[in-house]
Amino acid sequence: MKDYKAWCFDLDGTVYRGESPIAEAVELIGWLRKEGNRVFFVTNNSALTPSRQADKLERMGIVASPEEIMTSSLATAGFLLEQHGRMDVEMIGEEGLREALEGAGHRIVTEGGEAVVVGIDRQIGYERLASACLSVSAGARFIATNGDRAFPTERGFVPGNGAFAGLIESTTGVRPTVIGKPEVHMLAEISSRHDLRKEEMILVGDNYETDIRAGLRFGIDTLHVDTGVTRTADLAGFNEQPTYQLSTLADWPF
Ligand SMILES: [Mg+2]
């Protein structure tokens, strides 16, 4: 097993479940830090700011700094800046997306945006969606922070960001550019911000369709852990395999 300089962890199902930490992950992360490795957390969640996400980890006994947290919102803001420069952005989303866009120098507008960015927004109303559709039809760049159509809660599966982006797509006929996993933008952002080469990085995740695919597409090693969405037994059904398959992170030799 290789010695990786930068470990990129998915959160839910890998590091914690809901509000409960996964002990084996906490232990491995502590050991990696002691050994002088870099640790990053890579999440499709667009709603939380890095500092709030770090607080959430801290409450579970996992030391994390905001700089170590890569969200689909940060990667979205960086992607727009790199592709187009500073833009007038019409945003559907919460605090995490607003802070990321403004932090990158974009201006938030309520209509007529040069870009329409869609993250999860639990206060969403008809007017915001209508305005977003009109702007996309008029040629605005259409971005979805992530494509997850549903996410699990105690009540069952509820609409995710991808469901709202899908509504705009079905109204306008325009497909969004998707930023979160399984796309590679968050990993690319970590690599460029922290000057890391691909062979120094590993992605750890529980979901084959998002985490492992993102790592495979980006061209870094991947570790699948059987503590969340995809069961180890089901990995055989996929063409490309992760570099490592573990039932828990306690099985990593440290
Ligand atoms: Mg997960």
From TrEMBL:
Gene3D superfamilies: HAD superfamily/HAD-like
UniProt EC number: 3.1.3.41
Enzyme class: hydrolase
Pfam families: Hydrolase_6, Hydrolase_like
Keyword terms, alphabetized: Hydrolase, Magnesium, Metal-binding
InterPro entries: HAD-like_sf, HAD-SF_hydro_IIA, HAD-SF_hydro_IIA_hyp1, HAD_sf
Keyword Metal-binding: yes
GO molecular function, one term: hydrolase activity
Keyword Membrane: no
Superkingdom field: Bacteria
Cofactor: Mg(2+)
Membership in a protein family: Belongs to the HAD-like hydrolase superfamily. NagD family.
PANTHER family, per the entry: 4-NITROPHENYLPHOSPHATASE-RELATED (PTHR19288), HALOACID DEHALOGENASE-LIKE HYDROLASE DOMAIN-CONTAINING PROTEIN 2 (PTHR19288:SF46)
Protein name: 4-nitrophenyl phosphatase
Organism expressing this protein natively: Bhargavaea ullalensis
